[in-house]
Amino acid sequence: MSHRTSSFQLSDLFPREIDIEVCLKTLKIFQKLEGDVNCVVWDASLVLAKYLETMCQSKPDFLSGVRVLELGSGLGVVGLTAATLGAQVTLTDLPEALPLLRLNIAENKSKIVSMGGYAIAESLVWGDKHSDIHKQEFDMIVLADCVYYEDAINPLIETLQCLNNTIKKKPTIYLTQELRDSDIQKKLWNDFSDKLAELFYVEKIPEEQQHVNYRSSDILLLKITKK
Ligand SMILES: C[S@@+](CC[C@H](N)C(=O)[O-])C[C@H]1O[C@@H](n2cnc3c(N)ncnc32)[C@H](O)[C@@H]1O
User: Fold this and answer.
1) Total domains in the fold of the chain
2) Separation of 38 CA from ligand 1 center, angstroms?
3) Whole domain around residue 191: which residue ranges?
4) Strand pairing report for 200-204 and 172-178
5) 125 Cβ below 6 A of ligand 1
6) Distances from the Cα of 69 to the Cαs of 83, 90, 93, 197, in angstroms?
7) What is the pTM of this model?
8) Chain segment 54-106, per-residue pLDDT in tens
9) CATH number, position 67
10) What is the arrangement of strands in the sheet containing 67-71, beginning at the earlier edge strand?
């Protein structure tokens, strides 16, 4: 797959504020007025970010010091929320997504540090088995709305497998995915979830356990662990 380079001017950006109620912090996330899929906040990322917040409400140390890896971070809503809730987060995406992702990390750094968290952005292209990310250990992997591209299904499964094979402690994976109506998107999701179920235990988190205002019958939230 070829990757485009991406740059931006500050005048191309507009901010979106996302409250993290449990710690009374507000993330400021810059989106691009025009651009690729990594330039806007997707609803599935809000469902996952708010689920992490909901978990921290019932278990305050749910993310404290936890080593989190985010795949396909986009603008970083999920990873930045986890970091603001005290996690040590590595946010990853294609190389061209990193400048805006890093701007969003810098914009929110003081809030993250004040909560004892940490966030860094690195490139991770799914299917790249040689990435240094595979040498690191993580307790949790998070990904929102990443089952979107036909070419990327197998590489994404390979990356999830690799991350579970090379390290001693198996990370828990939390995944959200918007279920879209088109035949091609339905097939993509079915293919991905069949492959996932061959390799992992997959548990659907019921809507009633999710954030009361950030859940939807169109967005699946899964907890995934290695078989
Ligand atoms: C639909 S967007 C979701 C972004 C973000 N998780 C959210 O929910 O707002 C999918 C993300 O996956 C990233 N992505 C697509 N193909 C990828 C690949 N082969 N390796 C790594 N990241 C990829 C895109 O750059 C984009 O940020």
Assistant:
1) 1
2) 6
3) 37-226
4) unpaired
5) yes
6) 11, 5, 11, 21
7) 0.95
8) 999 999 999 999 999 999 999 999 999 999 999 999 999 999 999 999 999 99
9) 3.40.50.150
10) 118-123, 88-93, 67-71, 140-144, 172-178, 219-226, 200-204
